[in-house]
Specification:
The complex is a heterodimer of chains A (about 575) and B (about 250). With about 575 residues, chain A is α+β, with helices and mostly antiparallel strands. In chain A, about 35% of the residues lie in helices and about 25% in strands. Chain B has about 250 residues and is of the alpha/beta class. The chains are: A alpha+beta (about 575), B alpha/beta (about 250).
């Protein structure tokens, strides 16, 4: 099985992951909470079916999947413990806390199995093997349980590697994964519902004669998706060593996640709104329990056709349930009503909320004299709604950065972004004299300026006007430059994205032509002022000359010339 | 003694009731010909009687007017009222100086569809950039964006936007109900329309000096307001003296 079979495999590959696996966690959990002890024959049951059995019981033939009656027939003194997932999670928590000492970013797939991004912690611990040793030691100290660690690319690979106590290098990943049986996909499944769907899927594949992950990976993903749905695509990704997306809960330092599978999938915003409220309630409760506010909320959704949507909201500490509900609802509405321009082709089947940038409540106090607080809150709500329509970058706040020219000295940053450190009052030597124009084009448009003899006009290195005709032209330092010509733009609007530089230049040109017509005579001028900046830094370096022009009609212009090309930077209207 | 207090408070109540009625009529679009003769500018606590004179423009509903710079006050004798739609063509500086002065009084401002605002100039005219947002390219979501912003901002500055007549009517109506000032560079049938013409830059001549101010003739399409020449410099706008200044500043 080679990568050539899937052109996307290189892109799909997840990051290098490590998995911490504690075998038989339901049994260990039951023994930790006193229902049984490790040496006893015990089984964990949901209803009448065995879901896990202790090692001594397994030796006697009690295997998961048996009915209670069968198990008791084999071992009449078997200890039967009803399954309690909450207990399992609760008892797993100390292990996670212990792992936090070694790993910053750890996510729980299910109690007994946790995944983490391996590269940085391994570097910190001095290699993957050293990290594994540290973790095994810590877990044993904390709980007496035996942890297994494995490293591989992607979720499934890491889980499988942990079961084999192996470290799989990136090059071996594909062969390692593809040699496994299809049934290992069950390891990545967290909910009972998904499990039954997966079993059906695996059953179909088996009937089609496929037995290994390699067989599954060789299939065309789009065909797989159209035939078997989202779960099949998920499995295909896993088989290629990609990141699994079916995490049910993440316990990462500094984030909090709420996940829901939506069944039936939400097709309209009303259905979505209902879910939003429910999930926001869960998230807000969790945040309140931890006494924290979240700075950013990531709303992620997957559609039944496998595409995924994601948007991060900056909350600025507004972690009230209502705030969360509103944002999620707005976001879902925007997606489902297709207002963002990327309308999902299929209903939403999976929703995920991640609260990031958590800060303790104590650190987010409103200022004592918040003069603008009320207006700010009101404006913030409005802006959040607009962000729901336009996306987070659609709403911008102007900032003054400081600089020598109007176009470079100010700009706009997305709302709630950290503003750059402004220094508008620094001594900007050689800056264009103030006042600056009220119309400043962020993407200056190309214009041409003609000498009165009709030839092109430039500016010499000495900062004097220079006609391209040279000696034959009668241009003197005190004679008027001539005419400004505004080119004909394309007759129709450019096709680019709304707000793109091309569209902005088009509207700027329209603005200029509307004010001045296609050409206008120059009556007076100031300058030219040569300006050269930062010759040591290619990105900031430019060599220009700026000129203020009085046209025969209309307001004064600020133009610049750089490498022979004149540009209109602003209008003093 | 007691009686007079009661009657005074009754009068005040009546006044307030009239004001509320007036506001409601305005909001509903029933143009009130019987305007209450009171005017309150934001921040002032007392009701000031307006001298009995013919009204060149419609006075504001009480408690909703923003002050205007003295040089421009002839065009807005009652201040800029919430719900007004003002079209300003020919001069971005006039627009920014009006908006900037409102911002100085604590108003929150949103610019929609204006990618080419000189923020440095705007800040010098008083615009508080921390209380300003800009949606430079709302595109086909314009109507939705504007109605969302109307709920949260005091002044909306609208640029060139693809709005249908229906959208425009809806926006004007919502702004009137909410008491939001709308300023635009082009709007069909705006009731208050200021046009600036005869632009004249000052401060340089034939390559010597630099632009230090510029002036223009502001004319309003409204009764009783005569066209006048005003001058903008870096920080403010003043009424121009009869003779346009022609000053040479050595560079």
């Amino acid at each position: 099985m080679t990568a050539a079979l899937s052109p996307a495999s290189a892109v799909l590959r997840g990051p290098r992951r490590g998995a911490v696996w504690v075998p038989d966690w339901p049994i260990i959990s039951a023994s930790l909470s006193g229902h049984t002890s490790l040496g006893q024959e015990a089984a964990i049951l949901t209803g009448h079916r065995v879901v896990a059995a202790s090692a001594p019981a397994r030796r006697q033939g009690v295997i998961p999947g048996m009915t209670r009656r069968q198990a008791l027939a084999l071992r009449p003194d078997l200890i039967c413990v009803p399954r309690d997932e909450e207990r399992e999670i609760r008892t797993f928590e100390p292990i996670l806390a212990a792992l936090d000492a070694h790993i910053a970013d750890i996510s729980v797939t299910r109690p007994g199995l946790a995944l983490f991004a391996a590269s940085s912690p391994a570097r910190h611990a001095g290699g993957e093997a050293a990290l594994a040793e540290d973790i095994i030691g810590t877990v044993a100290e904390e709980t007496g349980a035996e942890a297994h660690i494995g490293y591989c690319q992607g979720t499934l690979g890491a889980i499988l590697a942990a079961r084999a106590d192996a470290t799989i290098s990136d090059a071996e990943t594909e062969d390692f994964l593809h040699s496994h049986q299809l049934t290992v996909l069950r390891l990545c499944i967290t909910s009972e519902k998904q499990r039954s769907v997966l079993d059906d899927f695996l059953c179909s594949l088996q009937r089609l004669g496929m037995t290994t992950l390699g067989d599954l990976a060789a299939l065309d993903s789009s065909l797989l998706l159209s035939r078997f749905g989202t779960l099949a695509l998920h499995c295909w990704h896993l088989a290629w060593g990609a990141e699994g997306t079916g995490r049910s809960s993440a316990r990462t330092e500094g984030t909090l996640t709420v996940v829901r599978e939506i069944d039936p999938p939400a097709e309209n915003s009303d259905q979505a709104a209902f879910r939003a409220k429910e999930m926001a309630h869960d998230l807000a409760t969790a945040l309140a329990d931890r006494g924290e506010l979240c700075g950013r909320l990531v709303v992620m959704a997957r559609t039944t056709d496998g595409s995924s949507l994601s948007r991060t909201w900056s909350l600025d500490g507004a972690s009230e349930e209502r705030d969360l509900t509103d944002r999620i609802r707005w976001q879902l509405q925007s997606w489902l009503e297709g207002r963002t321009g990327s309308r999902p082709a299929a209903p939403l089947s999976h929703l995920e909320l991640v609260a990031e940038d958590l800060t303790s409540v104590g650190y987010n106090e409103t200022p004592l004299w918040g003069g603008k607080r009320r207006g700010h809150d009101r404006a913030t709500r409005a802006v959040l709604r607009v962000q729901g329509i336009m996306g987070e970058d659609g709403v911008r706040v102007p900032h003054l950065y400081g600089g020598r020219t109007p176009a470079e000295a100010c700009g706009e940053e997305p709302w709630a972004a950290d503003p750059p450190q402004p220094d508008p009052d620094a001594p900007w030597v050689g800056a264009i004299p103030r006042p600056w124009p009220a119309v400043v084009f962020p993407d200056p448009i190309d214009i041409s300026i003609r000498c009165h003899c009709g030839a092109g006009l430039g500016v010499s290195g000495l900062g004097l006007f220079r006609c391209v005709n040279g000696e034959s032209c009668s241009l003197t330092p005190t004679s008027v430059p001539g005419r400004v010509l505004f080119p004909h733009g394309p007759s129709s609007r450019p096709q680019g994205e709304i707000g793109s530089a091309e569209r902005r230049r088009h509207s700027a040109l329209a603005h200029a032509r509307c004010t001045y017509g296609s050409s206008v005579e120059v009556v007076s001028w100031a300058g030219p002022w040569p300006l050269e900046t930062a010759w040591w830094d290619a990105r900031r370096h430019y060599r220009r000359a700026y000129v203020q022009l009085t046209p025969a009609r209309g307001p004064a212009l600020l133009v610049r010339v750089e490498q022979g090309q004149w540009k209109l930077e602003g209008i003093y209207s | 003694m007691t009686v007079s207090v009661v009657s005074a408070s009754r009068e005040a109540k009546l006044e307030r009731a009239r004001a509320v009625l007036f506001q409601a009529e305005r909001a509903a679009g029933l143009s009130a010909s019987t305007v209450p003769r009171v005017q309150v500018t934001r921040g002032a606590t007392a009701l000031a009687a307006v001298p009995d004179q013919p009204h060149p423009v419609e006075p504001m509903a009480p408690g909703s007017a923003w002050e205007v710079l003295p040089a421009l006050s002839p065009f807005f004798p009652y201040g800029i009222g919430g719900g007004q739609l003002i079209e300003i063509s020919g001069s971005r500086s006039l627009l920014l100086s009006l908006v900037g002065h409102i911002s100085r009084q604590g108003g929150w401002t949103a610019f929609v569809g204006m990618p080419d605002v000189g923020w440095d100039s705007a800040a010098n005219y008083g615009l508080d950039l921390a209380a300003t947002v800009s949606v430079p390219a709302p595109g086909r979501n314009s109507a939705g964006v504007i109605s969302a912003l109307i709920d949260g901002f005091d002044v909306l500055v609208l640029g060139d936007l693809p709005l249908s007549t229906h959208d425009q009517r809806m926006i004007v109506h919502r702004a009137r109900t909410r008491g939001i000032v709308l300023m635009t560079e082009s709007w069909p049938n705006a009731r208050i329309k200021l046009t600036v013409s005869e632009h004249e830059p000052h401060g340089y001549s034939a390559g010597v000096g630099h632009l230090d101010s510029w002036s223009g003739v502001v004319s309003a399409r409204m009764p009783g307001a005569e066209a006048r020449r005003v001058t903008w410099d870096a920080a403010t706008v003043t009424e121009a003296s009869a003779v346009p200044r022609l000053r040479v500043v050595p560079s």
